[in-house]
Amino acid sequence: VDAFQKFDFLFKIVLIGDGAVGKTNLTTRFCQNEFNSESKSTIGVEFATKQIEVDGKNLKAQIWDTAGEERYRSITAAYYRGAVGALLVYDVTRFSTFENLPKWLGELREQADSNIQIILVGNKSDLVDNRVVSKEEGEKFARANHLSFIETSAANATNVEKAFTSLLNEIYKKT
Ligand code: GDP
Ligand code: MG
């Protein structure tokens, strides 16, 4: 439920990345402050919303999460249509999700608007003993591809709000 109804800007944000990296839990953590330890690949709605205030303006984020189709088929063009921001998510405990980032960037370049603002998100930073992708590797990939970068934990809420709000701030600054 939104704290306020009126808004000055509506921004469509998409989450992309391999299955089970934490896209759904990042979304529910930001929009509802909830976390689920079981992976549910289907959700009832196409997107969740959250409003934040920047410079006295109400920004309404319409956050699109996949229904799990990234696991077995490609994401449709409708998912990317009109998106002004993307969280490109990998799992710091599974190297394959980091290696697949170029594939996701390629899909973004093909399907999304060329002006889309992207933040690279290394999720599951709470799992310190299982980490296989270092923060430096994430930073290096982000730098090489001109992306913002942050590490998050949907499980303990570290940096989740910051990831979404810094992306929304960057989008707002471009309007
Ligand atoms: P999605 O397929 O990308 O939407 O990933 P989910 O959000 O469904 O998460 C997949 C699994 O990873 C679930 O079992 C989650 O509980 C777990 N998970 C997601 N984010 C985190 C996190 O930050 N830390 C930990 N420890 N587990 C997480
Ligand atoms: Mg999901």
From TrEMBL:
Gene Ontology CC annotation, any one: endomembrane system
Q: What is the lineage of its organism?
A: Eukaryota, Metamonada, Anaeramoebidae, Anaeramoeba
**Superkingdom of the organism of origin:** Eukaryota
Signal peptide residues are: none
Q: What is this protein called?
A: Ras-related protein rab11
Q: Which family does it belong to?
A: Belongs to the small GTPase superfamily. Rab family.
The GO molecular function terms of this record are: GTP binding; GTPase activity
User: Which UniProt keyword terms apply here?
Assistant: GTP-binding, Lipoprotein, Membrane, Nucleotide-binding, Prenylation
Q: Where in the cell is it found?
A: Endomembrane system
* Topological category with respect to the lipid bilayer: Lipid-anchor
